[in-house]
């Protein structure tokens, strides 16, 4: 507990003492404490009784202005319900109350609270995996509820924390959860798993969407090693996925690399983007750099432009000054056909638009600016100028010692 929270709790205790009712003497809190210590807490009815008492304690403390006690009660009871009762469905209701009260009481996001979210996440996963009798439908529902809880927690850390776009620890939790969901058959083996009746997403689309979100959150958390580990475990691109003019989506490994590099560049983490691309080319890619360079310029080899080569060139251009804007515009336009085959190309367009603004002072329309900021808080192509082939050759030669 922070010093300010401890101060508020002491003040509330003094006020309560003057009125003859200390928090320790609160009968509702007493009943809740007794239930949480009861061996029958694993029974659903007992767990629900504890939930209702905890909600009453939280609301009462909010009403009397003891915000520290309110959020502590929500956190401690949520953790107890997960670790002692294993009732995930019951606990998820109190977790929703917790993240609501954190924002409602303007509780600041700090390292202690991020550690608390980490403990809740670990307990939630353990309880979910420990229930062998849960149906796939219920498991998928609870996975999605936890995703919403973590997303709201990230928004709270952005609104009431000191880090723009949210605390890195919260992004890390979301990255792990999104990737775990993408590997969970109860989530991806459904036709309409993430939306309502009008959601016609296929299992493949849900999987790449979750994995795209995961690498984006890993990038925001500066977990380059995590991104590389996930990419290393994915299959190599097939001949169909790398054929010139292919209509199918690119290989997941390629698409996720591009997504992660663009997020890193958009948040101005050039070092992270450079490290990711260099490590990918050295440790993950099946094709040597010399072959990738030659193929990127060869329009007759029957292969589509390489994502790894595009990312490598993009990073090198961003390391230059704003005068290289025409080169940036040419690169994005040249790779534009490939970018249209990825899942949700509008997201990629938003990232390229922000990169153009940050590094080259290319101003997008106001509507695109709003989309970019909203996307980054939650967590495009430029056409125009042509490029002299000699300039392109010179840039490729200059990359020889860089990546």
Question: Which features characterize this protein?
Answer:
elongated, mainly alpha
What does the model show?
This protein is mostly helical and 403 residues long. The protein is built from 21 helices and no strands. Helix 19 (345-360) crosses helix 20. The longest helix has 24 residues, at 136-159. The chain starts with a helix and ends in a 5-residue tail after the last helix.
Give the secondary structure arrangement, pairings included:
Elements: H1 3-18, H2 27-37, H3 44-63, H4 67-85, H5 88-104, H6 111-130, H7 136-159, H8 168-182, H9 185-188, H10 203-220, H11 224-232, H12 239-242, H13 252-266, H14 270-283, H15 289-297, H16 307-318, H17 325-334, H18 336-339, H19 345-360, H20 366-378, H21 389-398
Proportion of residues in β-strands: under 5%
Main sheet summary = none
Structural class: mainly alpha
Query: What distance lies between the first and last C-alpha atoms, to the nearest angstrom?
Result: 46 Å
- Per DSSP, the total helix count is 21
- Write down the overall mean pLDDT: 85
**Global morphology:** elongated
Low-confidence stretches: 18-23, 191-198, 380-389, 398-403
Helix content: 55-70%
E-strand count: 0
SSE run: HHHHHHHHHHHHHHHHHHHHH
Rg result: 25 Å
Gist?
The protein has 403 residues and is an all-alpha fold. The protein has 21 helices and no strands.
């Amino acid at each position: 507990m922070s010093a300010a929270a401890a101060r508020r709790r002491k003040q509330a205790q003094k006020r309560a003492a003057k009125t003859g009712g200390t928090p320790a003497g609160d009968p509702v809190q007493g009943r809740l404490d007794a239930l949480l210590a009861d061996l029958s807490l694993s029974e659903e009815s007992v767990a629900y009784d504890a939930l209702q008492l905890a909600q009453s304690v939280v609301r009462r403390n909010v009403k009397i202005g003891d915000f520290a006690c309110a959020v502590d009660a929500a956190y401690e009871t949520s953790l107890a319900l997960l670790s002692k009762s294993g009732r995930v469905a019951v606990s998820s209701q109190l977790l929703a109350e917790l993240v609501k009260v954190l924002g409602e009481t303007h509780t600041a996001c700090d390292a202690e609270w991020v550690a608390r979210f980490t403990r809740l996440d670990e307990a939630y996963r353990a309880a979910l995996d420990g229930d062998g009798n849960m149906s796939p439908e219920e498991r998928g529902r609870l996975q999605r509820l936890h995703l919403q809880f973590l997303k709201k927690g990230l928004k709270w850390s952005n609104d009431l924390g000191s880090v723009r776009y949210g605390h890195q620890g919260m992004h890390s939790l979301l990255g792990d959860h999104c990737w775990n969901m993408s590997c969970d058959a109860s989530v991806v083996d459904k036709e309409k798993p993430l939306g309502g009746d009008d959601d016609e997403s296929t299992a493949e689309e849900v999987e790449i969407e979750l994995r795209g979100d995961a690498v984006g959150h890993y990038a925001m958390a500066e977990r380059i090693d995590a991104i590389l580990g996930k990419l290393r475990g994915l299959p190599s691109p097939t001949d169909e996925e790398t054929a010139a003019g292919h209509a199918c989506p690119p290989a997941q490994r390629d698409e996720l690399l591009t997504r992660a590099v663009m997020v890193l560049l958009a948040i101005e983490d050039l070092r992270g983007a450079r490290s990711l691309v260099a490590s990918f080319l050295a440790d993950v890619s099946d094709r040597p750099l010399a072959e990738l360079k030659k193929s990127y310029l060869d329009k007759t080899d029957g292969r589509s432009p390489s994502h790894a080569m595009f990312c490598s060139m993009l990073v090198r251009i961003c390391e230059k000054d704003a005068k290289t804007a025409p080169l940036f515009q040419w690169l994005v336009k040249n790779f534009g056909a490939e970018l249209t085959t990825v899942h949700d190309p509008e997201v990629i367009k938003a990232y390229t638009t922000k990169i153009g603004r940050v590094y080259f002072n290319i101003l997008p329309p106001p509507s695109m600016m709003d989309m970019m900021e909203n996307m980054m808080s939650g967590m495009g192509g430029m056409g125009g100028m042509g490029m002299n082939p000699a300039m392109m050759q010179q840039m490729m030669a200059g990359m020889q010692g860089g990546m």
